[in-house]
Amino acid sequence: MVPYLIVLSFYVTSFLLATVLSTPMCSELVVPVQITANNAVQSLRNSRASKILDPDLDTTGLLALLSSGINLPFTSLIEGSYDIAGRYCEPEVDVPSRRNTLQLLAHPATYDRNYWSGGGSPGFGFDGDMYSWVSYASLQGYPTFAFDRLGNGNSSHPNGITVVQCPAQAATVHEMILLARNGALPFPRNFDKIIFVGESLGSLVGNYLNVNYPQDADATILAGFAKDWVTVIPGFTFTAGLLPALGVQPSRYGNLDPSYLEASIQSGVEFLLFYGPNTYYDRTFILQDYANRGIITLGEAASGALVPTALSYKGPVLVIDGEQDTVFCGFLALEFLGPGNCGSGPTSKPALTNIIYPSASNYTSYIVPNSGHCWAHQTNAQMGFKYSHDWLSGLGF
To answer: CA distances (Å), 347 to each of 63, 151, 258, 313, in order?
Structure first.
């Protein structure tokens, strides 16, 4: 655990500087959480397929493992204490009604907290703040906490099959929300409103949060998300070339167990996550993304394959996808089939996702034009940022 006095002194220093600088003032924090969650039964670990789990696992073996995990009941109780690292930012614009409204930002698979600020700290991402959700939110007066999900970035890396699954991820968010609402360290004060914002796997985690803890988030924004994607998983695995990370980049990930996976085909990742090279995204930025790419666990992929219905969640929900999202609006995620197509109007994929939020006080969908799965790193990112924050403002947040 990071000593709280060090974290607090760093935060206080940053807060004082914020009074004289016109940028969001950010502090690197570590949030200790103790979780209890019902993960998929451990037969995922004990299945015959999992016996081939080793550093030389190929994509065929990986698909066997994934198929052994899909449809498992979530009845395996897991408990543990973990550290969740993240970046807390005070906004540069003071809006009194939003001082105690915290945005929790959950990144996609193969990224970390830097996804939300253009690949670097706010103000230092690619092309400044062009791709920074954090900086846009700062100008609207929202504090943000962009965190490395369990098993990612600087957060704890427990077993990637039995522990790092979507229910456990949601449990870590639940514990952070309790701390934030109570103003417990390392959070600086009580936050009376929580807005959960996810992208891709971060959105799958947010959906599990709303299923298991329907009172936690006052509002939910799910980017790169829809009600189903299971048919895409085999093609995604092959196209991205997912393999044990310790074999792909042993210098970075050699200390992880083989259930932590990393993409190994740059062109495949580019096809899956983005649309319109050098027209609707800057390839220099995307190549930087790939060079700094993170990981996904086998447990996350298997537990996130099917998207449950959040029957009891009553807050407002915005689902926002790129028009050509290949992951959630595609079919098989194979390059020769071309990009995805989310459709338009009431029959679009994000609009039809309202079926899994039957009790939401407001369900809204929006499609970012000429954009792929990770639209926040494409040229129309600001359109998505603006729509999301206008939606929040219109609902009184």
So the answer is: 31, 36, 41, 23
Taking the model in full, what pTM does it have? 0.90
Q: Which residues contact 5 (CB under 8 A, 6 or more apart)?
A: none
- Whether CATH 3.20.20.80 fits 4-394: no
pLDDT in tens, 259-311: 999 999 999 999 999 999 999 999 999 999 999 999 999 989 888 988 999 99
Comparing CA positions, the residue from 215, 220, 391, 231 lying closest to residue 307 is 231
Joined together, the tokens standing for residue 315 give 């807050």
- Spatial distance between the Cα atoms of 34 and 1, rounded to a whole number of angstroms: 12
> Is the pLDDT reported for residue 211 higher than 60?
yes
Q: In 3-state terms, what secondary structure has residue 8?
A: helix
Q: Rounded to whole angstroms, how far apart are CA atoms 255 and 325?
A: 33
Secondary structure (3-state) at 151: coil
Q: CA angle at residue 390 from 387 to 205, to 5 degrees?
A: 65
Mean pLDDT of 51-75: 54
Q: In what order do the strands lie in the sheet with 296-297?
A: 243-244, 260-262, 296-297
